């Protein structure tokens, strides 16, 4: 397992206890209320009809002009994409989610991490996480479309609160693939549901590698219902923006950046800051490439008093 958030078992092993608030991920801690499911969602193999219904709901929810392919999380696409087409040079705009570069390297790609969008030009394959994890940097659709690369992968896993950043409204173009996460914004990461969007020929390649039943029947049904509930999405977006402002006010360190699903701060000592929060049963995310950065997800409503008390040093 590479270095990731969500490793709450490690926190429990080191610090003990079971009553933890896990802010080490960018997963919404007020999840979509899972509805009762028909027995067939559990007992039958997933159908093409159910997969099409989910993809249609996602297209409507995200105003997508291109088709979407449901997968077992955006991670499933990240592991599949390096296997499509000829291996060559890849550039990843970083620092960012480490699975992109790791999976490309494992497949034989020559991978370089670059710090500026323009440095991606000329690559056989380029990866941009938009908005970026962990610092929240973002780039406009026009800036991304102007890149001169062989294949462009845009990971929009945290884009739900920022519909204006998305490339999904553009017509599909061969070689441009968009990744979307369901579990982060909808708070149901354990469902393992995500999407790849793009040209039908690219999606056909991904589908062939993913196999005949890439998403469970329960995930197809829950995803379809949740994506159709636009009132919940609008209310959640408003709450997350407000909670991001509240977190920034509570944290004693300067803000580096973030999204309405996570915030990144510059501490004098990230390890010490993580240890302090852990003693209050709050797990956070620090990074092997920075001794100062700490990332915090946003608490659920009943978790705020404990989090704010810990941040104030009480």
List the helices and strands and how they pair.
Layout: H1 8-15, E1 21-22, H2 40-43, H3 48-61, E2 68-71, H4 74-80, E3 89-93, H5 99-106, E4 110-114, E5 125-129, H6 141-145, E6 151-155, E7 176-181, E8 194-197, H7 200-210, H8 217-228, H9 230-250, E9 255-259, E10 262-266, H10 270-278, E11 282-283, E12 285-287, E13 290-297, H11 304-311
Parallel strand pairs: 1-11, 3-4, 3-5, 5-6, 6-7
Antiparallel strand pairs: 2-8, 7-8, 9-10, 10-13, 12-13
Helix pairs in contact: 3-8
Structural class: alpha/beta
Separation of termini?
A: 34 Å
How do the helices and strands follow one another from N- to C-terminus?
HEHHEHEHEEHEEEHHHEEHEEEH
Uncertain regions: pLDDT < 50 for 5+ in a row? none
Which of globular, elongated, flat, extended, rod-shaped describes the shape?
Answer: globular
Quick one: CATH class of the largest domain? Alpha Beta
Report mean pLDDT, rounded to a whole number: 96
Explain what you see.
- The protein has 314 residues and is an alpha/beta fold.
- It has two domains: 8-30 and 231-311, Aspartate Aminotransferase, domain 1 (Alpha-Beta Complex), CATH 3.90.1150.10; 40-228, Type I PLP-dependent aspartate aminotransferase-like (Major domain) (Aspartate Aminotransferase, domain 2, 3-Layer(aba) Sandwich).
- 34% of the residues lie in helices and 19% in strands.
- The protein contains eleven helices and 13 strands.
- The strands form three sheets. Strands 2-8-7-6-5-3-4 form a seven-stranded mixed β-sheet, with helices on both faces. A four-stranded antiparallel β-sheet has the order 9-10-13-12, covered by helices on one side. Strands 1-11 form a two-stranded parallel sheet.
- Helix 6 links the parallel strand 5 (125-129) and strand 6.
- Helix 3 (48-61) packs parallel to helix 8.
- It is globular.
- It starts with 7 loop residues before the first helix and ends with a helix.
């Amino acid at each position: 397992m590479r270095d990731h958030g969500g490793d709450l078992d490690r926190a429990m092993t080191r610090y003990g206890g079971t009553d933890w608030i896990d802010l080490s991920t960018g997963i919404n801690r007020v999840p979509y209320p899972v509805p009762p499911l028909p027995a067939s969602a559990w007992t039958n193999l997933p159908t093409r009809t159910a997969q099409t219904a989910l993809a249609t709901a996602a297209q409507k929810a995200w105003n997508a002009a291109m088709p979407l392919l449901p997968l077992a999380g955006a991670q499933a696409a990240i592991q599949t994409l390096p296997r499509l087409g000829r291996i060559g040079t890849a550039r990843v705009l970083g620092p960012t989610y480490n699975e992109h570069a790791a999976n490309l390297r494992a497949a034989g790609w020559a991978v370089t991490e670059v710090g500026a969008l323009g440095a991606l030009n000329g690559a056989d394959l380029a990866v941009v996480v938009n908005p970026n994890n962990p610092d929240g940097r973002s780039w406009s659709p026009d800036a991304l479309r102007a890149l001169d690369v062989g294949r462009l992968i845009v990971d929009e896993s945290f884009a739900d609160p920022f519909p204006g950043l998305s490339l999904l409204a553009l017509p599909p173009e061969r070689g441009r693939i968009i990744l979307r996460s369901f579990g982060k914004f909808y708070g149901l990461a354990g469902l393992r549901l995500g999407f790849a969007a793009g040209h039908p020929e690219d999606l056909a390649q991904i589908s062939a590698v993913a196999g005949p039943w890439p998403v469970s029947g329960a995930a197809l049904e829950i995803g379809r219902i949740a994506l159709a509930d636009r009132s919940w999405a609008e209310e959640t977006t408003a709450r997350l923006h407000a909670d991001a402002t509240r977190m920034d006010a509570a944290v004693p360190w300067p803000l580096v950046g973030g999204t309405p699903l996570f915030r990144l701060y510059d501490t004098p000592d990230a390890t010490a800051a993580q240890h302090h929060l852990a003693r209050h049963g709050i797990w956070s995310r620090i990074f092997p490439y920075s001794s100062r950065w700490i990332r915090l997800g946003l608490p659920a409503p009943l978790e705020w008093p404990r989090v704010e008390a810990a941040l104030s040093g009480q």
